[in-house]
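Quick start: load a record and inspect it. Here is Zinc transporter:
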Amino acid sequence: MDSQQSQAPKFRDEPPPAFVINDAQRGEEYLDEQPPQLESRLLSPSLAMGDNPSSDVATRGTPHNPFNFETQSISTSPVKSNIGQRRGHRYKHSSISTQHQIFLEPPPRPPPVLPASLPIPTLSEAWRSMEKDQRRRLYWSLCHLAVAVFIFFKSEGSLSAMALSHLVFFDAGSAAVCVIVEVLGNFEVWRRSSIRHPFGLERTEVLAGFAMSIFLLFGGFDLVSHNLKHFMETLGHHEPHHAHSHEHVSARSVELIAAAATISTLISAYGLRNHSRIAKVMSVSCLAVLPSVLSNPFHFLTLFFSAVVAVLPLFPITLYTWLDRLICAAIAAAMFGFGIRVVIAQGLMLLMSYGGTNGHSGVAAVLSEIEQDTAVIKIEESQFWQVHYGLCMANLKISVSRGYDEVALSKLRQRISSLIQNRLGEGYGVGGNIRWEVTSQFDAEAGL
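Running the structure step on this input writes:
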């Protein structure tokens, strides 16, 4: 009995074994163990729509969540992508990287000496920048244009008066150009160089003068056509195709036309100094001894023919007709001749050539005098050209003897610059304002 009791198993108070079950597996087992009543309740539409949630909660108690979900916050900061970017060398600034670096960084560039471009003023900016004197000149240029229109409409029946109106139109246009040049001179873009406009906007004045010279040419052709038309109508006994008024202008009207042309020309000559720059490109030697106003060929032309037209009514009728046509032909020839000279001179400026003082003969004389210097062997290349009315450029490549140091070459460069300025720039005391920029390149190796 005792042996049986000793062989009976003894139970110890030990905890039951623990099992670790995955959350997903636990959830599946939990759903499998649910009774069919719970499944029917989950599929019931009334419970799914939440018709009576209070009774359901009361019967079931607190619902048990079979899945262990935890709320996680998602970052809203943008994700920086490294796709397409080079990582570079870790030791970029080390000695190892310097030895094996193929593409070196470019050295820092100095700031440009010339600006890329300068602002061009608008009409409102130009009007605000005008001074009181400049506005008076603008108003007078408009008055000069009105005088030209008055002479043109008042000259009906007189070919010489109509030709005189063409000259006054040219003077009025030149006065307007002078005013525009003075107003644009208030701005930096007019004189300062830039990459877009290497010589500023001063070359536009040359272009405006070229247009005025074209007006002279076409004005001369227009006067010739009118004169020939009137002359052909007097031949034969046929009727003209167009009605023309051949009645002579009254003496009072002719005197008024001549007086208006003379006064307007003198005011523009002394007040605005029109034609002063254009006259520089075509100096007439026979007019140089006359006073300042009459030495200008365009002023002389207008004043001379105004005086001739003023005395025209003093002649008899038979002589008046022929003199009227003769004066018209003379004005047309003068406009055509001056227009040709101005077109050539300003065309050379636009084409970057030189046709100034004595033209090619003056340049040849300067080059021959440079070659007479003891340090100069020969002049290999030379280029002379005029940029605008106030600036000319000369580029020289000269072969010099070996043995001259930098000081001697610098003195030679100064002698060449002063020689060109004095010979071609009219020197000091003459009144010329043409500035020469001379660039000299010396080649000592060619002197061996």
